[in-house]
Design brief:
single chain; 334 residues; mainly beta; Immunoglobulin-like; eight-stranded mixed beta sheet; 15% helix; 53% strand; rod-shaped; disordered N terminus; transmembrane helix
Length: 334
């Protein structure tokens, strides 16, 4: 049994290397027109359901021998690190990847570039919004029982016409108060949540976290960027809001405003999202300082009272001694 290993499809056209038959093969794949590479980083179209469009890709062979490249189209997605990729040959495409028809292989001569036309056919029942895909040229190298499949390509961003809805939901908002080691300095609020694209187009977003305490008398805020999200994608977002004392009730509100990433944003429905979480904190450090100050004041008051009583006792003793000495002086004079 052979094992297939797949390299990541690049967002921008780059060269890749493989050794299918012992000789090193270096190649690149780029968007093109009928004459050759046209400078685009990827292909992007907004099409009506049922529309058919012809596009081109250019495969450049930098090696010294002709190479037969396998061509593939597949559904596109974003990795956990936010890089664009496409399904492997062993995974079935169900969306934009099925809209693309291209030859199975192309032979490119040494130091040559070959332009390959391919067709994009939008299904009549295509739902409005983005249907990301990718195209790639692949070389398979063999060594013993292991087959290594290397590919390079670019994204094909397909949007079916209709109402574009940009919406990002805030899921699992978690808030943690972080105290300062200095009781006379404010701490901060660390928050995390999952930003999920619940619309039908690729978006980025701006989020604002606002923290209110002391029943609205004090508030602080901070901003964080929501990374690129394809429809259905979710990514974790973190933010830190400083200058929070944590004196009891803390209310944290997260607002996310999405923005359409590509295509014409005009006419798109922008749906901001607001989520609020309230937590209670006990200001232990400040309470400890208050207790310490109270103890010092109580100790000082006790000492003052003790000294006053001692002074009063000494004065009483002095007065008594004076009266005794006065009576003795009178008897001596008699």
């Amino acid at each position: 049994m052979s094992l297939a290993v797949l390299t990541i499809v690049s967002v921008a056209p780059v060269a890749a290397s493989a050794e299918p038959t012992g000789a090193t093969v270096t190649w690149a794949v780029q968007p093109a027109d009928a004459q050759g590479p046209d400078g685009r980083r990827w292909i992007e179209h907004t099409l009506d359901p049922g529309a058919v469009v012809t596009e081109h890709l250019a495969v450049r062979n930098f090696g010294d021998s002709p190479v037969v490249f396998a061509l593939q189209a597949a559904d596109g997605y974003l990795t956990d690190k936010g890089r664009f990729n496409m399904l492997t040959s062993g995974q079935e495409s169900v969306d934009g990847g099925t809209w693309i028809t291209l030859p199975e292989t192309v032979t490119v001569g040494a130091k040559q570039t070959t332009v390959v036309p391919f067709t994009i056919t939008v299904p009549p029942d295509a739902t409005p919004g983005d249907h990301p895909a990718g195209v790639a040229a692949t070389v398979t190298s063999t060594g013993g029982t292991v087959a290594v499949q290397s590919r390079v390509g670019f994204r094909v961003m397909l949007r079916a016409s209709g109402t574009a809805a940009a919406a990002v939901a805030v899921e699992g908002l978690a808030v943690r108060y972080e105290r300062s080691w200095n009781p006379f300095a404010a701490g901060g609020v660390h928050l995390t949540y999952t930003a999920r694209n619940t619309g039908n187009v690729a978006v980025i977003g701006d989020s604002t976290a606002r923290v209110t305490e002391m029943f609205g008398l004090a508030d602080r805020n901070a901003s964080a960027a929501v990374p690129e999200l394809l429809p259905g994608d979710g990514r974790q977002v973190e933010a830190h809001v400083g200058g929070v004392w944590g004196l009891g009730r803390i209310t944290t509100t997260v607002e996310v405003t999405p923005a359409v990433l590509s295509g014409d944003p005009g006419g798109a429905e922008i749906r901001p999202t607001t989520t609020t979480v309230t937590v209670w904190t006990v200001p232990w450090a400040q309470l400890a300082v208050i207790v310490l100050i109270g103890a010092l004041l109580l100790g000082w008051r006790t000492i003052v009272r003790r000294r006053r009583r001692q002074l009063a006792r000494l004065l009483d003793q002095a007065r008594d001694q004076g009266r005794v000495e006065g009576r003795e002086s009178v008897r001596a004079a008699d």
